[in-house]
Amino acid sequence: MAAPESGDGNNGAARMVTLISSDNTRFEVEAAAASLSQTLQLTILDGGGGGGDGIPLPNVDSATLSKVLEYCIKHAPAAANGGAPNATAVDRAELERFDNEFVNIDQSVLYSLIMAAHNLEIEGLQSLVAKKVADMIKGKSPMEIRRTLGFPDPTPEEQAEMNAHMLEYGWAYE
Amino acid sequence: MSSPRRARSTPSGADQLSALPEDVIHHVLSLLPAHEAVRTCVLARRWRHLWTSAPSIRVTGVKGWPDADRFLCFVDRLLTLHRGGSTVLSWEFHLDETDFDPFFNICNVTGKCHTSRLMERILECNVGTLRLCLNNMAPMIGIALLPDLILVSQHLTMLELHGVITNGRVLDFSGCPMLVKMKMESSCIDVKEFSSASLKQLIMVDCQFCKEKRTRFSLPSLVSLELNLYTGRAPLLGSMSSLETATVSLNSQCADSCECEDDYCDGSGCYKDSDNDDKSCVLLKAYFFTIAIA
What is the interface pTM, i.e. ipTM, of the complex? Predict the structure, then answer.
């Protein structure tokens, strides 16, 4: 589906909307970029978010929102082309490079981003951050997974429970 | 514009991760092979059973399984757990010869794992999509063999088979009324009849058909057909009144491949019906016939 007012008509001036973070910072962004969010898309289609109004986002703080919008702005042109079936290999490689760098972030930022992507229903970003977490788990032993994801070492009781669970599924717990 | 302020007292990564909604964690777990997803049970009590309810399951052969029994026990537990369930949307069963440790006794798997039965059990979990990939396994063992495959499922909509050998009399999907999409790749089709009343899209890539006899395709609802023959005789296509697109290509090793010296012939143009010793093009005739009806 084409994003609203993606440049044709209206003298080429892209429509802007304002988003307000939980800590009251206002972000002005092209409607096409904000519409990557399924949650915002309907409001924007109804003409909301323009002028002095702004759309309040009580669940997203300004640091996270600025990161989310960085993603949306980068991905909006491709999304406007319906997933960019005719994008060049160069464009796609550039988006991939951007994505890889984009999730190369501190874990606490990553988790805030996961929550924001989930609340705002931004499909591409949801997949990207989920894949990042999966990659953090992949190929690791149970202990390494715990340490990578910042869990403290288990107590002896927890350890015993885990052993039992793993053995139930045929896994030797190293 | 923005003036990002840094967060106040930040909760630990573990707390934040544990606070994520269940469907977000399921999304992450769906991206992991099942034997890796199971390890996340070590994270916290909440995670202990989360991996078992993820909507898609991927079972892959992997280095690290100490022996075939452990591997099969794991698969068995998974199947028992999901039997009759409604949470699993897709199952992928992916065994690759190179995934296994060279010391892993593959024969133990083949001796104890009957692939047809395995597929039946996966379908008992009410899955919508089933992918069975047996890369490079076919030449060494019988695991890829699916004799007289007759599947029954009210939920299956998509089936993907990679590296399997179907033989016997039939490849019958009349028991799968919701099946609309099917893909077979690098597989061997040695059956008399391949039938499905519901199938709309069929893709067959690098498939080997029998050299001696033709398989009859009885796929009346087919809309899109992509057929890429590696060897053997091209199938006989029954009436397909809804067919909109068809792409057919024959490898030079196919029994039907054209040997004429016409520069414009790509090898599939003169697809002969040698049973009748008739040199007319049966495939294209069938194809044009369906177009004429449509």
Answer: 0.83
Stretch B159-176: mean pLDDT = 88
CB pairs under 8 A between A and B: 116
Note which residues in 67-106 of chain A have CB less than 8 A from chain B: none
Query: Nearest residue on chain A to B9, judged by CA atoms?
Result: A108
Specify the number of domains making up chain A: 1
Residue A47 lies in a domain: yes
pLDDT value for B9? 46
pLDDT in tens, B123-155: 998 999 999 888 765 445 556 777 778 889 999
**Assigned domain for A159 exists:** no
Bridge partner list, A29: A17
Range of the domain at A101: 10-138
Does A145 map to a domain? no
CATH classification of the domain holding A41: 3.30.710.10
**Quick check: A154 contacting B, CB < 8 Å?**
yes
Structural domain contains residue A5: no
Give, in degrees to the nearest 5, the angle at Cα B217 between B214 and B220: 160
β-pairing, B245-250 with B224-231?
parallel
